[in-house]
Write a structure and sequence with these properties.
Layout lengths: L4 E4 L2 E4 L5 H5 L6 H7 L10 E6 L8 E7 L2 E7 L7 H16 L18 E3 L2 E7 L12 H19 L9 E2 L2 H12 L2 H12 L9 H28 L4 E2 L1 E3 L8 E4 L2 E5 L6 E3 L1 H13 L3 H14 L4 H28 L7 H26 L12 H4 L7
Antiparallel strand pairs: 1-2, 3-4, 4-5, 5-7, 6-7, 8-9, 10-13, 11-12
């Protein structure tokens, strides 16, 4: 391939330096993508482009992988309902600030020819960024090394973002804790009845929902037994004053890229807001360590080597963890059975629900052990450490 050839899909289109714009406007390129890329400099125009669909995500965003003179780029079309331009401008400002502070394993936006960090076109916001190398391939066999690398990378991101100038207070109660209490208060007995009815009357629509219905029934049965304890933890955590700064708020194993055991990228910053770092620590460890107490201790230690966690922040990590598991499970049930959302990868959705239900069952087992003053049931020889490890891997 020479610099005078443009590849779009499988089509080889010769172009000259003065014909690049005409090539970009070729009918071989989707009209909306073509219009958006017209806002960027010529070195961002692709000679190959591949649609990735949702790229395995659940946000409703769509992605394209672009091979360009500038290098590999990622084009993202946000769903129409989120974020709005003000929110996306804030997110991009945070990412650019973090990059200036030396954290390079993120994709700050490529600016348009008129200096904007995104394009509004066809009812959607669009952004262009560098394509990060690596693969989201965290697996238990390499857990120790990759978990340590991921937690250190998160701590480095938090340090780089700590001095980002924002209008809110620099310390105070966690906004996320307050939101979780509000969500718990919103779920009434009537809501549980409505959800249970929707589960029992769920239409198949050609999809086998047997596994989802089983998870849903178990989650609904556990909710009244575990929600009061989580509410108590959150109410206590709401009184804690901690540092507040930009946080990722949607950091989990599928958003961390690796090359062997080294972190090469962190992706998907659509939920960035001002929060306590404890929320990010809990989210990432939830996906990396599950209920493995040893892995949790290792992850907290690795994070703290870079950015020490205070005692109040550690208390918040615990409150975030249990509430995150319970409320994310309830969100999934609403999306599936009330709003009847459709997902590209049902196996991944089932895996997420399986993890949620399994972790809640472990929470309940350990809580019963704690309430009993450490006394095990007759014939149960498991240790407290075993009771806190993930046992639901079916």
């Amino acid at each position: 391939m020479t610099a005078r050839h443009l590849f779009i899909g499988t089509t080889d289109v010769p172009v000259g330096a003065l014909m690049l714009l005409d090539a970009l406007r070729s009918d071989s390129l989707p009209a909306d993508v073509r219009d958006v890329l017209g806002h960027y400099s010529a070195d961002c125009w692709p000679f190959r482009i591949k649609s990735l669909g949702s790229a395995g995500g659940f946000s409703g965003a769509e992605f394209w992988r672009l091979e360009t003179p500038r290098g590999l780029l990622c084009l993202r079309r946000w769903p129409p309902e989120y974020p709005d331009p003000t929110r996306l401008a804030f997110i991009h400002s945070v990412l650019e600030h973090v990059a200036r502070r030396g954290f390079r394993t993120i994709p700050p936006p490529v600016r348009t020819t008129d200096g904007r960090s995104f394009v509004f076109d066809d009812e959607h916001l669009w952004e262009l960024s560098n394509w990060l190398p690596g693969t989201a391939d965290f697996v238990p066999e390499c857990r120790a090394e990759k978990l340590a690398a991921a937690m250190r990378a998160l701590a480095e991101w938090h340090l780089a973002a700590a001095d980002f100038p924002h209008d809110g207070p620099s310390s105070g109660p966690s906004p996320g804790v307050r939101e979780r209490l509000t969500q718990l208060d919103r779920i009434s007995v009537r809501d549980l009845v409505r959800l249970r009815t929707a589960i029992e009357q769920a239409p198949s629509s050609g999809i086998d929902l047997t596994e989802f219905i089983d998870f849903a029934r178990r989650l609904i049965a556990m909710y009244p037994r575990i929600a009061p304890r989580i509410r108590e933890k959150l109410q206590s955590a709401r009184q804690i004053t901690i540092p507040l700064q930009p946080c990722i708020r949607d950091i989990w194993c599928d958003h961390v890229l690796f090359d062997k055991n080294c972190v090469t990228g962190i992706v998907d910053f659509g939920a960035v807001r001002i929060e306590s770092v404890a929320g990010d620590v809990a989210r990432l460890l939830d996906s990396l360590a599950g209920d493995d107490l040893v892995a949790w201790q290792q992850g907290l230690a690795e994070y703290s080597r870079v950015r020490p966690l205070s005692a109040p922040e550690l208390k918040l990590v615990d409150a975030f963890d249990e509430s995150l598991v319970l409320l994310s499970g309830m969100n999934w049930l609403e999306w599936i059975f009330i709003y009847r959302r459709r997902f590209d990868d049902l196996a991944q959705v089932a895996a997420r629900l399986r993890t949620v239900v399994g972790r809640l069952e472990v929470f309940m087992t350990f809580n019963a052990f704690r309430i009993a003053g450490g006394r095990r049931a007759p014939g149960d020889s498991r240790s407290p450490a075993t009771l806190t490890r993930q046992v639901f891997r079916r």
